[in-house]
Amino acid sequence: MDDNFTSTTPASNTTDGSYGLSNVDFSFAFQFWFSLSFHVPSVICYVFVFAYILMHKTQRQALHNHSVLLLLFISFIIVIFDYSWTLDAARRGGHVWLSSTIFCRIWWLLDFGFYDACTVILAWASFERHILVFYSNILSTRRRRILIHYLPLVIMPIYLFIFYIYAIIFPPCESPYDFTSPVCGAYPCYLLVPVLATWALVFHGIVPTFLIFFFNAALVLRIIWHKRRHHQNWKKCRKMVFQLFSISVLYLSMNLPLMVIALVQSVGYPDFGTQAQLYLYFFCGLIQYLLPFICLTYLPGILQKIKTLYLRATRRVAPLETFTLTQTQRLHTKI
């Protein structure tokens, strides 16, 4: 095997966002250090964001944070396991550290299922944000919150988990395993089953991605229209809107062109955008890496706290430097 990632997976048949599965002209060494430079800061940021939200009751109870928290949790699992294993594969020159079919299936479940879960949940969150901004009275009772808010956030992960458990862990076919390639070749056999492959591509990839674009664009236009027509003050929900909008822009920067290419390929142009598709798959890992940093900027008071910590640190360093300088001057005076 040469020094570049190679994959036998047809680009048009996969909807995952793994950045280490393409045959772009990047060496394993570059892929390893490129990923590692984002991996470590991202994990630290995830832990910080989780700790902050768990320590602040108002943030835990805010309805608009629940879908974002679920998105963060699933992305964190992807980074900790999927991307860590991909990093290790790059370090090993492409070889999988555990040559086991069970291990490969679990890896595929994370790589395909969890990534698609993020896309579907973000699509729902983009729709729900309209309810939270314009029709918040609908969620005024506990029963309505359970039916409209909590139930979808439970049903969607369960449905996706069942689908990918069946398609990957207990597939209706025999999957090929390549232990000398990252993610064991990343070619679960359900991609060759037309019904399963089409369903996953359309309803876990193309449709949710375009819904994310549509709902976010519509939300911004509605707010502008309401502000001009009714002269309403949107300060209370501004942060809530821009939080999800920023996350959506991050996802759409990679997913939207990928899904456009996949859509064109699926209607009879299999060679359309294949080279661009390879690079988009490679850089899709940045979505999960950058997600906690976007969420961090929208935590209330976090920037002021970081500034305070920085000022405290500089104040501690300054007296130490003064003390050291004074001692040095005294020593020179004695000499």
What top-tier CATH class fits best? Mainly Alpha
Low-confidence stretches: 1-22
The value of Rg in angstroms is 24 Å
Number of discrete helical segments: 10
What is the H-and-E element order? HHHHHHHHHH
Query: What would you call the shape?
Result: globular
- The CATH topology assignment is Rhopdopsin 7-helix transmembrane proteins
Assign a percent range to the helix content.
over 70%
Distance between the termini: 68 Å
Major β-sheet annotation = none
Q: Average the pLDDT over all residues and give the rounded result.
A: 84
Residues in β-strands, percent? under 5%
Shape-level CATH architecture: Up-down Bundle
Q: How many distinct folded domains?
A: 1
Please identify which CATH superfamily we are dealing with: Rhodopsin 7-helix transmembrane proteins
- The number of distinct β-strands equals 0
Structural category: mainly alpha
